[in-house]
User: Fold these one by one.
Assistant:
Number 1:
Amino acid sequence: MTTIQTLHARQILDSRGTPTVEVDCVLSDGSLGRAAVPSGASTGKYEAVELRDGDPKKFFGKGVTKAVGNVNVVIAEALIGKEFDQRSLDAALIKLDGTTNKAQLGANATLGVSLAFARAVSESQSQPLYMYFHNLLSKKRALSMPVPMVLVLEGGKHADDSADFQEFMVMPIGAPTFSEALRWGDEIYHSVSQVLKKEGFNINVGFEGAFGPNLESNAKVMDVIIAGIESAGYRPGKDVSIAIDSAASEFFDQGSYVLSREKKSYTSTELVEFYEHWADKYPLVSLEDGMSEDDWDGWMNLTERLGKKIQIVGDDLFVTNVERLKRGIAEKSANSILIKLNQIGTVSETVDAVEMAHDAGFSAVVSHRSGETEDSSIADLVVGLGTGQIKTGATSRTDRVCKYNQLLRIEEELGERAAYVSPF
Ligand code: PGA
Ligand code: ZN
């Protein structure tokens, strides 16, 4: 148990130039933990509430001074001088908020405090943050270096006038180590840029550092990626496979899935057939948010038809929330969960979601948000919880690369003690 001496939040900017919350937590022994909170663009309907000021005169309503004030006044008054461990701190935050979705204090306030406390305690105990997270697990798992989902092309809400699907990623499943995987992914990122340039497309990047060209179809995106993998000298499907995040809630409109690139509209069943065709044609190993967040029947159908062959990941569907995950496990809606700390708003609830997933035989993919900061906690989280997969954008832009760089440091420190094992 550790006593909190001071808590101080401030408003900073994220990678999109939008305000977000940063929290400093100082313990009674003087240890400081600092954490910053990320923010989504294709946000799930069921995520915990991100509290924004709504004052149109400042930052177009996107200021977070209310959330900052909640840390500096309400939370500080309730917590300062008291002893906590991570569980009791997060329970106190949940109780103080008093709602089911952090609507009172804001998940941006609670996560800032929860994560800053985690950092402060790991500092106080002179242990790496990944070990601190590791020790929060109720059932031990081996530490592991994750297989990265390296983003190469983006569309949807993340890049204007680009593909309908939001993220196209490469997974170096055949690499021997994390650092080699990162090198392969980075080489493919640059090869894809060459392929695009040669074909006359622009190489401007989207929110997460990957290219967002105006290609004529979603299938063309897949062709460009495969050309990029091959021209970098790797074998598609053997060395490197493809992962997609459709973010289908974003193109679901009144019961139909509308792919405007291809000028086509699909029913839920037809979209599943579309994915089946892609899984036959391309080296696809993972599909995230293939269906919309309320299309539970569609998810069940997708998992029944494709779940033995590929990873079916729920992001907007589960929102890192054990109640929604419980339903998904019971209904066999997916076989994997995306893990985002700010979707639920505390470290402990995030660990609970990972453990529930693992107990059910689901995989868990730790993820960044499209609005990020220089905070690299998710790199430590994925190693400590041993989930084995991370999604943290392209190998460009410091908001993305700082997570990869932290993983390189961890790999160096752990050496043989952490395996890199491909789940595919
Ligand atoms: P978001 O996108 O952070 O904009 O929600 C990331 C994702 O959908 O995985
Ligand atoms: Zn997603």
Number 2:
Amino acid sequence: MAGEAQSDCLFCKIVAGEIPATVLRRTERTLAFRDIAPKAPTHVLVIPHLHYPNAAELAAAEPAVAGELLAEAGRVAEEAGLKDYRLIFNTGAGAGQTVFHAHVHLLGGKPMTENMV
Ligand code: AMP
């Protein structure tokens, strides 16, 4: 069922504590942990405990939780002392998504002035 933990999902296993991660913040509904292959000095993933395959599906079903992801990303940035940072939601393999459990990438700590948009 939508929102339920999936036995074959890496991030559901991290939420459940079955796979280790460097957790920075945990709330009742979200988890923030360091990306295992950082692309910037600060590279943190913020995910909902609930399993949805991407950010749009999460937002459609659980808009408050989608909002909490963004608020939590802001808190992680603040705790890391970041004033400038980038938030990225990859959606679909063609856009670089490799883990199909909604997550936002928080990237910061280096200049990121090149833009796709
Ligand atoms: P995406 O490519 O947008 O689906 O992002 C998935 C991210 O998860 C990638 O940046 C990976 O480096 C990261 N990742 C994969 N496995 C782990 C893990 N065990 N712990 C932390 N991050 C991971």
Number 3:
Amino acid sequence: MNQDYFIDEKLIHKLLEEKINPKKKEIDKILTKALLLKGLELKEIAALINISDKTPLEKLFKTALKIKKLIYGNRLVLFAPLYTSNYCSNNCLYCGFRRDNKDMKRKCLTLEEIKEEVRIILEQGHKRILMLMGEHVSECSFDYFLKTIEAAYSVEDSKGSSIRRINVEIAPLTKEEFQKLNKVKIGTYTVFQETYHQETYEKMHPSGKKYDYFWRLYVMDRALENGLNDVGIGALFGLYDYRFEVLALIQHAKHLDDKYSIGPHTISIPRIECAQNAPCAMNIPNPVSDKDFKKLVAVLRCAVPYTGMILSTREPSEMRKQVFNLGVSQISAGSKTNPGGYKESLINPEDEEQFLLNDTRSTGEIIKSVIQQGFVPSFCTGCYRLKRVGKDFMDLAKPGLIKLHCLPNALTTLKEYLVDYADKETKQEGEDIIKKELINISDEKRREKTVEYLNRIENGERDLYF
Ligand code: SAM
Ligand code: SF4
């Protein structure tokens, strides 16, 4: 075991037991502290995650939304995932791409096919993508993946728009690979630990490179030590006790923050979905109820206020709407989880998909519904492009200053979307929300500059940001 093993399983179990029935008074005190936006102690998080009564739960939800608005304002950042290959030599018991799923039609996209996928994603209005693939050294090597990133950045759609930020979610890399990845200019590098509980982890990953719990656990250390600026962590909820995973995610975040002064840029919160020939997706070991899922989102928002929280289309639209109000700050839209899925309307997509999606609405429908819910859909990539990354980003996010950039950039990127891609109804509703939200830009000069940018976009300029 590594010397500075930062997941303390014994401590987590002890705290979860000690805080099993938190008193209302204690909860109130913790929630008041959470509003200071400085995060919480592990024992306080253990108390929140053990809440079961309705009244304290509602207080928790309200606090989470307040924190989200204080840090990020009223925006929700959108992205689309792009799967480049479903070959995989691992055997994760919950995933459709697993090696032993012999019914999966395997595919590794050519660079031309990738460009075509990107063109379709761009025509939906997206500006940021998340590129993913299975782990297979010969069928989809790391060098191939680097080429796919360059190919994706090179595409222009009919409006002359290109992808402005590519985030990456691929198997843990070596030091040398991170140095190469750095050169192709990516945004965030993400890996989910799946479960932080070592014994469960080893059961879920019976063979292949992924069996090594510690190789995966220390991937973000390797990333930050080798030039990456922004990293994303996550747990796959349903493998082990969700309360344990929440506390472990916090220990991971604290470890990165203490050691590198860069906490995780994002935390992802996937719940296991149905997947072909994947025993633990058909029979989930520790299912997380909707009530507990909402609670864990709100607890994470209180515990690490500065960190973006990502929700995918694994969740059904109704649940997505509910957790936007609990602290989620980034969402995928119009997703496909099979390589080539954007181009093909397949007869049997499940033969190539990693898992089934529950929110199958188009990007346009999701944007309309986000606006109707009162949030500003944002395609912002400003921080990454102005190098507000790593510690610089954290220095703005922690005291709640990042929203000075987030809201204006959300409004200018939404304006681009409305002019270039939206239907008539969305256009009207979008213009209304822009007008309404301009008032929330507290700095007068910034507000005036935003209005100027909006007019310039109306008149044909693009890519104006703060
Ligand atoms: N293959 C790489 C890896 O495992 O690190 C890249 C990421 S994989 C394409 C994306 C993530 O999908 C996995 O980390 C896992 O958490 C998630 N996933 C796999 N099967 C799933 C399922 N049945 N339901 C929900 N999420 C799943
Ligand atoms: Fe492969 Fe990743 Fe799926 Fe595991 S989760 S089988 S590593 S694609």
Number 4:
Amino acid sequence: MEKYVIKGGSPLVGEVEIGGAKNAALAILAAACLTDDVVVIDNVPDASDTNAMMDAMRSIGVFVEKTGRHSVKINASQITGKVIDTEEIKKIRASYYLIGALLGKYNQADVVLPGGCFIGLRPIDQHIKGFTALGADVRIEHGIIHAKAEKLRASHIYLDVVSVGATINIMLAACMAEGKTIIENAAREPHVVDLANFLNSMGANIRGAGTDVIRVNGVQRLHGTEYTIIPDQIEAGTFMFAAAATRGDVTVKNVIPKHLESISAKLKEMGCEVEESDDAVRVVSTKRLNPTHVKTLPYPGFPTDMQPQVTVLLGNAGGISIVTESIFENRFKYVDELTRMGANIKVEGTVAIVDGVERYTGAEIVAPDLRAGAALVVAGLMADGITVVDNIKYIERGYEDFELKLQDLGAKIDKVDTDKEVQKFRLKYA
Ligand code: UD1
């Protein structure tokens, strides 16, 4: 199984280009199924989750052609089945966007329940509430969600929790429903806005995305489009934190600084310099980080997908920090691994009390999920000695060329496949 081997201690210096947003791409790929015309999407990250989504779409007869590493041509006019129960689809959680898309297009969808990272219970009651409000009959039988409607009709839906997935799924199902659907307490994440822009470019009539009330005026049909996906907020944030973690100086390019404000604000509190320009953010760190408190919240709050990364940094800060996870109840699993590297972190429910230690020491650790995996790599970059991170398939779900981008910034990191290669790396840096 592939692993990352890392020799810590090198400050990251230079420039890094951020790719397209994985979470926007997953929604937009599914949304492309809403039309029978050709759709061209650019800036699709070459990560295993987006590739799995494309495989899942192919498995139901969608024509999906990669015309370049980041460009995809889609034609969903020949969808063969609405019953989707393939191995491809089970691999990713966002496959449930195909329910919204197929229900919106054909008034029927039967899709196997999603997988994804095990960071909490992840119920889908708000998705079901939305589909039902639009007039669908929804049942779950033998692990498959069956949604069917005579005709979808607009509705006024108040979400009980701010859910990115439910907001997206309801937008997908509602854009060709009769009348005006109103989603209250909607998620405001950048990828929700990106999906709305994409759907509008296909002829949908969606207003208010980016606020907590989204209005979807149903249209008769959607047409083909060509669209470029926004940069990935979390990939950018991870590199910003990696720069701060290693007392580096990194310019993170091709970003939307507005999307990074909560991340930049935390870095400033921790004593880093953050300089913003039109489409780049430079992070400079010269000293031991200050402790601070963090609570994850829906956008524009501090993202839960950056929680492991911030905790890793605070684990070496000069004092005690408190990190509160308010979105997913099981998102501190990586702390056990960090403890093996010398961290002093106590988790009580959804709160971590982080007592900063002078330094981490390299160890053999395992990535428990996507973002925690990336955070553990950052810990390896900070640590004395050599760290081996196993189970990197999780990291590859959401980061394209992670180790190559880090190498370009001066990190000593390799992707290896065998114990012999691990030994070779150890000898090289002994
Ligand atoms: C999406 C992102 C994920 C990110 C998360 C929060 C994608 C593919 N994934 O996940 O990276 O961490 O947003 O920003 O975009 N909830 C319910 N009922 C529901 C749906 C959600 O109670 O029907 C709860 C969840 O348990 C969680 C909270 O709402 O506590 C937020 O979840 P949600 O925003 O739906 O996350 P995802 O869309 O799964």
